[in-house]
Amino acid sequence: MNKNHDTALRLAVHDVPVLPLRAGKVPFGNCPTCAKNACGGRPDMKTPGPCACPAPCHGWAAATTDPGVIGSPAWARAWREAGGVAYHPGGAGLTVVDLDNAEAIAWARASLPATRTVPTTRGEHWIYRGAMQGANAVRPGVDIKSTMAYARWLGPGTGTMAVLPDVVRALPVKEPAPVRPVSVSVPSLADGGQCPHRTPTYLDRGIAMAEHRITAATSAVHATVYRTFLAVLSTHGRCGCLTETHTARLFSAAQAKGETVRHCTDAWTNALTTLGLTHG
Prior knowledge:
This protein is of the alpha+beta class. 35% of the residues lie in helices and 14% in strands. Strands 4, 5, 6, 7, 8 and 10 form a six-stranded mixed beta sheet that branches. A four-stranded antiparallel beta sheet has the order 2-1-3-9.
């Protein structure tokens, strides 16, 4: 068909998932059937929807090793218009450290183990065996292309490919933001009477369990924080046993999981509103 198509087939034989690139190094847009993500894909094309479309849709998610798909009529137009070939490094069990300038290359030579390198237009690709989550701008001039990402195929490169080192795996990990103190509305005991929950053991156990629920969340953190605030307020909000010290513990647990102060405050306020504990 053309040299890009032939290159794609050669890579696919070696279990490297490929896709066509338009001129300008960007993937082809979604086909008419998938336009505006009608099939369920996300607009940023980072997560494919439940799509059975045979066209090269959804960016990196279109990458394939199936020669029948690569040579299919649905891909023929894309290959005729393609400006190059891309591949999904994570799908091939690889990670590409994309070094965009001379300063980034100098940092890599001083900080990373030697591995296979490929010259690019402005810098180099350093390729390691092993996959990880792709991430952009992990440091000045450095991107990571692996799972949920694509890299342009620029040739096999030179050098022996090394195992993905921990120093690269650690690059996307951000230092946790400092926990900021907050002041939020704490329901007061409306009738001024004795709170039935005002015992250190009962209340502390409840707050500790709430903290653990937030800390243990591995997904849907936003929803977990809201549900936890709702549970705490439903038990302790009407009798007035909560203090700002208790809410600060809950907010600190949420912030340690990456939640912002604004989200914590909104979740707390929404929980108060849901339970009818706001004061007009």
